[in-house]
């Protein structure tokens, strides 16, 4: 087993960080889809004003739901004797298996579903 492991290469991170990154990636993808639709609508108005005048709208795409299911290797670490243990996850992939000598029998499954909800009204 190798002793000089680059943890970024095997993607080991706390669970909260991994979930946050997945959510941010879905949000970034939706923003890119929205920006493309806005650009296409502006191009339509510039190149085909007659269609714009008739109320033609370009197609808008949305990500109504994102589901993630990954095989994960779990690791609990307690850095201070009195502090809580933190859970770290690493996607179970070829690099992780080869670099750390991990066996599939010890893997867990992370299932995550991200869905849109109505905005908070402040009431």
Structure in words:
- 6% of the residues are buried.
- Helices cover 37% and strands 22% of the residues.
- The protein contains three helices and four strands; from the N terminus they run E-H-H-E-E-H-E.
- The protein has helices spanning 15-47, 49-53, 94-100; strands spanning 13-14, 66-77, 86-91, 108-114.
- A four-stranded antiparallel sheet has the order 1-3-2-4, covered by helices on one side.
- The longest helix has 33 residues, at 15-47.
- Mean pLDDT is 78; it is low at 1-10.
- It is of the alpha+beta class.
- The chain has one domain (13-114).
| Total helical segments | 3
Unreliable spans: 1-10
Q: Would you tell me the overall average pLDDT?
A: 78
Q: In which order are the strands of the major sheet placed?
A: 1-3-2-4
Portion in beta strands: 15-25%
Question: In a nutshell, what does this entry contain?
Answer:
With 123 residues, the protein is an alpha+beta fold.
Which descriptors would you attach to this protein?
single chain, 123 residues, alpha+beta, four-stranded antiparallel β-sheet, 3 helices, 22% strand, elongated, disordered N terminus
Summarize the SSE layout with pairings.
Blueprint: E1 13-14, H1 15-47, H2 49-53, E2 66-77, E3 86-91, H3 94-100, E4 108-114
Antiparallel strand pairs: 1-3, 2-3, 2-4
């Amino acid at each position: 087993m190798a002793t000089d492991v680059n943890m970024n290469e095997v993607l080991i991170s706390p669970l909260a960080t991994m979930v946050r990154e997945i959510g941010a990636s879905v949000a970034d993808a939706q923003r890119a889809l929205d920006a493309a639709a806005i650009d296409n609508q502006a191009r339509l108005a510039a190149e085909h004003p007659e269609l714009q005048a008739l109320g033609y709208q370009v197609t808008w795409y949305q990500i109504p739901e994102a589901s993630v299911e990954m095989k994960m290797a779990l690791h609990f670490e307690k850095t201070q004797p009195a502090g809580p243990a933190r859970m770290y996850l690493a996607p179970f992939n070829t690099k992780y298996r080869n670099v750390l000598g991990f066996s599939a029998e010890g893997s867990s499954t992370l299932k995550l579903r991200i869905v849109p909800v109505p905005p908070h009204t402040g009431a």
